[in-house]
Structures are given as C-alpha cells and as structure tokens.
Records
---
Amino acid sequence: MSTPEKSYYPYYSPYDPCKPIKVKTYSTPPNLYLGFQPPNLPQFSPKEALRAGTLWKPLYDPYYSPYEKAKEGR
Amino acid sequence: MWVYEKKLQYPVRVSTCNPMLAKYLVEQYGGADGELSAALRYLNQRYTIPDKVIGLLTDIGTEEFAHLEMIATMVFKLTKDATPEQMKAAGLDAHYVNHDNALYYENAGGVPWTATYIQAKGDPIADLYEDIAAEEKARATYQWIINMSDDTDLNDSLRFLREREIIHSQRFREAVEILKGEKEKKKFF
Ligand SMILES: [Fe+2]
C-alpha cells in the first residue's frame, strides 16, 4: 500500500520574515500508484461506499486539515 | 439527454453562518479547475475522442454537474441571509454591488468564468492528460479549502468531493491506458 502523503525539507534562511515551515507535505493519493484497476479489489458495503465517495477500499483517501487533525488528535 | 433526480449526490450541511467560506468555495463553482469547467470540458471533448472512452466522459461530465449543484448549495446556504455588512466583512462587497446575494460563475477573486479555462485539442492523449491534470488541481483546491475551513459538516462534504476527484483521475488514467494499449497485449476485465 502507498502512503497518502510525502514530505520534503525546503531551505530556509535565518533572515526569512515569516516563521519557517521546516517540513512541507503534499498529497500522493492511491490513484497515482494503482495503474489499470485490477479485478476483485476489496469493496465497501453500499452504505459505506456512499459515505466514502468510492466503492473501492484501496482508492479511499480522506483528507483532513491540520486544524481537524489537531482537534481530533489524529 | 439527461434524467434529473431532485436530490444532491451527497448531503450538504453547513454548521456556521460564514460568508467568508462562500468566497473560497466559489473557486470550485466558477474557477479554472472548478466543477463548471470540469463538466463543460469533458462533455465537449466527447465528440472527438475514440468510442471506447466516450461513455467515461459522459459519466464524469454528468457527475461534475452534480458536484456543481453541491457547491451551489453550500454557497447559497452560507450567504442567503447575510446582510450587506456581513458580505462586506467577508470581502464580498464587490460581489454584492453587482449580484446582491445571487450566485455567479466567478472564481474566489471575483474573475468571471471564461471558456479559456478549458481546452479541446482534438488529440485524445492531450485531452485526457488535461483531464487528469484538472482532476488533480481540483483535488488540491479542495485540500486548500478544507485547510481554510473550520466547519466540520462542510468539510465532510468537501472530503467526499475530493475523493471523487481521486476516482475521476484514476478513471482518466485508465482511459489513457486503454487508448495507448497495443492490440496484441489486449486485456479484458
Ligand atoms: Fe472531477
């Protein structure tokens, strides 16, 4: 399984006016890795699928803001 | 021809009166990578693409209108009872003098929608690569809106829309695989 996020460490100067963000992250959702979808992948139940936005468990990648993550201790 | 179902693809609930969020959401309404652009781009490309992937463009283009309707509902709910003062405080004063509280196809900066946002190159690979890029850009836009929003109910609907962009991108990538497939290595699922 792929990871849904990658990070990198951009250069920052001691003279940068804003507090540096030392680690930058970006999304790498599962569609980048799957290729042509193979048969018989695990599925959500119809009810779960309607909530998730996909029938296919390996393609489910919910995104939460840093604010939401902090609030729920994710 | 289309058949209309009088319900939203996914419920839209808004928990706070926050016209500022409407200003951000409008990017997905009338912005370059928004739902209107997506729907019109895909449905228009259908005529000059190999038969095998026309159905995909019809399906996704149609779904984009369902997304457009969800965004419209969000924007409407966030602004419908906002006073001129509240619109002004949300940075929507220029919108208000032109449109009152009506919705309009414009981006978050107030720039009206333009057909130059979309392309139909007539080359199937070029068009599908544009579609894949459009889906990834829409996915990113949803991330940035979620980052700007503290409305948990709204974010739930936005997460659904972002997930759909991932699926659309997946299907467009598969469409490229189908069109570039070499005849002798044909695979059916
Ligand atoms: Fe889409």
---
Amino acid sequence: MFLSMNNVHKSFTNNDKTELVLSDIQLDVKEGEFVSILGPSGCGKSTLLSIVAGLAHATEGSIELEGKTIKGPGKERGMVFQQAALFPWLTVEENVMFPLLPDMSKKEAQQKAHHYLQMVQLGAYTKHSPHEISGGMQQRVAIARALAMDPALLLMDEPFGALDEQTRSRLHEIVEKIFLETKKTILFVTHSIAESLKLSDRIVVMGTQPGTILEVIELNFPRPRSQSKEELLYYEEKIQALLKSEIDKVTEKEQKHAASR
Amino acid sequence: MQPAVKRIIFYVLLFSIWQGAVYVFDVSPSLLPAPTDVFASLYEGFSNLTLVYDLAASFRRLFIGLAIALVLGLLLGVLLAKSKTADETLGSLILALQSVPSIVWLPLAIMWFGLNEMAVIFIVVLGATIVMTINVRTGIMNVPPLFIKAAKTMNYKGFRLFSKVTIPASIPYAVTGMRLAWAFAWRALMAGELLSTGPGLGYSLRFASDFGDMSRVIAIMLLIMLIGIIVDLLFFQRIEKKVLRKWGLATS
Ligand SMILES: Nc1ncnc2c1ncn2[C@@H]1O[C@H](COP(=O)(O)OP(=O)(O)O)[C@@H](O)[C@H]1O
Ligand SMILES: [Mg+2]
C-alpha cells in the first residue's frame, strides 16, 4: 500500500490532563488517489495531517509511506496549510524556490519555480511580494511551493477555508486539474461536504471526541462532478446524517462546559 | 493648512518671541542669549571647524559603541530567545538593568577604564545593547510558528532553518531595536561626554558653560537635537518603514 495508517492514536497532555484526540485511525491510501478527510471542527483532522507530515508524532501506532515508517518531515511529502504561510521577505518566485535551493542551482530552481507558478496560473506574478497579491493567489503560490519539491504525497489542511466562495471554486478547478495532470496522491482535509464531493475519489468521514473514522465513502462517478446532480445530492444527505450526531455531541459538550463555569 | 506650513509658522513665531523677549526685557546673554547670537555662535563654530572636530570625535565614539552594542545585542537576544535558562536568569538581569539610565555607570566606568574614551564608549555600549537585546529576543520569540512548520515540511532544520527563516522573520523587530539602540546611544554619549572628557560635542558644551558662553551652549544643544532628529527621520525611520512594508506589516 502507498500510504497506510496503522492503529494511530494521539493524545495531548496539558496540566496533567490527558485528552485523547485521535483513536485507532486505520486508513490505507492508494497511489494517485484523492482522499478527503471530512469532519467537524476539533475532531483531529489537522493533528492527523501533521502526523503524516512528520510535524507531530503518534502516541501509538505508525504511518508508513511506500513501506517506510514516517519519523519526521521529508521532501516526499508537501504540505499546504489553511494560511498560505508565504515568507514576506521573499518574492513569489523566491518562495517557490525556497524548498529547491539547497539542492540545485539558482537558475534551475528558478526555472522549476516558473513551471509550477504557471501551473497555478500565476506566471505573471513571479516578482510580486506576497502581500501584494490576494489571499486566493497566495494560496496558489503555497500550492506551487509544495508542488515544487515534486512530492509523492500532497497534504492539504483546509487550504481554502479562509477564502470566499468564488475564489474557492476557482481553486477547486486548479487543484482538480493539477491532480489529473500530475497524478499526485492528495490527502485533503476539509469541513465542507461540497468541497469533498467535488474533488475526492474517497471521503473519510471522521467523528469527534475522540477523533475516529466513522465511514469511508467511495465516489464512483465521473469528473467533473457537477454534472451528476443526483449522486451529489445522495451523498450529501448521507454525509450530513453521519455528521449530525457528531455536531450534536460538540454542541452538548460546549453547553456543559458553559454551564459548569 | 499643510502640517509643514503650520510648523514653519510655529518655529518662526517661537524664535521671534524669544528674540523679542530678550530684546524687550534686556536679558543678560549669560542667562539667555538671543537666537541671533546662538546662530552666530553656530556659524562661528562651523567656520573655525571646532564644532566639526567635535562632531567627528563624537561620531567616532558613537559608531564604535553602537557597532559593539548591535553585535552584542544580536548575540544576547538570540541566546535569550533560544535558551530558557539564560532567559530566566540573564534575561531578568537585563530587564532590571533596562530601568537604570546607563549614565549612572560612569563613576564605575571611570574607575575601570580611566577618564578617557573607553569609559564613554562603555556607557554607550551599555545603553544600546540592552534595547537591542530585548528587541532581538522579542523578534525571535514572535516568529509565527506556522513559518517554522512550513519550512520544516520543506526539509529545513537546525541552523539552516534558523538562518533562513527565524532570522529574516525577526528582522522587523531587529530594525526597531537598531533605531532604539541609536537613540539610547546618542543620549548616553552626550551625557557621558558632558561628565567626562573630550573632545566631543558634550565636552565642548560643558567647556562653553564653564566659560559662561551660553550662546555656544545653546548652539550645541540645537546641534544635538538636530542630529538626533535627522538620523532618526532620514535613516532609521526610513529603513523601518521599508522593512515593515516589505514584511507586509505596515498599516498604510
Ligand atoms: N498542541 C496541542 N496541545 C493540546 N491539544 C491540542 C494540540 N493540538 C490540537 N489539540 C487539540 O486536539 C483537538 C483536535 O484539534 P485539530 O486537529 O486542530 O482539529 P481539527 O483540525 O479537526 O479542527 C482539539 O480539541 C485541540 O484542542
Ligand atoms: Mg484544523
């Protein structure tokens, strides 16, 4: 299996209180697959993704990528965060060159950077500063930067969560195009049902407290998904039903917390 | 009305009132000389080059002191930001020293280094190092954790992560630190020179005062003020603005 998560548990200890955030996550991802992780806020999606990225470690269990256990960050995994996290002291082009520079000449890195910036349709903005372009464009630069390392696995943590609706659907098209062209494996975290239906081959629906996998849904209808209204509706209702009890759980906990203060 | 126009009117008025008051009340020049006398003294000081030599001497000390302070502040700031133990111990001392005007160290400095330049440079270094240290420390501690995470996913770690991400990300604070360090250094230098030995602007000010030459005293005071403003406005504030804009932090 390309990527396999085996029995992953994660707990955080704060002030002697231990909170179990992820419980028994078992998931296999095939090469070239687009998998969305969908779940209510706080269910541990970001935590899971940062374990895959190697930024955090599982309390129990392990994750293997192409047979190798993940122990820390690596170039075969690129990550895009909710905030673009571009470095303001570098230009757009230099940001995309950033992951390349240790290993290749400046000229080579620049050529590569231009290639990936064109892929996200930003070829005309190479010399701009990050703060001179819009939020959606910044996020496209972040995608180009992650792609520049030519990672086998692309991790995206609610990359469009902070963007407005129009910008978001434009970016969906770009990501889908990149996915189809580069055949990268993508692990995509979102809390938007519509987003996951539009983009993924499979949707992993997560429950909360602790974070567990509720169900994995295969989407076996052709892209672009917008042409299959019936299927979209069917799955949307199905996922909504799955998530409803989870969201109730969160609300209940919040109310209890509020009452106990 | 433009602020610049308002300002010009204000200063013309200020000097006219000063001039008028000195003339009307016939104030003794040893109490308060007229602005015209002050400007004449300023002109004389520049044409016979005494003020030029003083300026050169003061600036030499300032640059030596400031250079040492900036390097020292950078190193100390990095140390405090990176080592919790250093921050909890040395950091507390540096914060405590911040509330002491560096000039109070002069008697000790004179005992250690003698009544010479070294004592004055010591005062300058002390005043400027502390603000620089505090700003560099704050800058490094305030680097967005997301920058570090993102760089780690691009396989940056250790010294390369520090030099390519942490340091550039904290430059806005370091620049503010430099500007404050200059301001502290300039004040400390003038105080040090006033109370120790010359040549230098501060020393000449005291020398003029000892001889009752109040026109020269005020002329030098004006010069100290002008240099303070000009360096801050034309140099440090410009750099600071540029950096803040580039780092996307400017509230335009
Ligand atoms: N470093 C941490 N220390 C303690 N608790 C954390 C930490 N990171 C995340 N958590 C907790 O783990 C839970 C899941 O967080 P997260 O993975 O960010 O959720 P999601 O991305 O699904 O919204 C939350 O309850 C959060 O408070
Ligand atoms: Mg999250």
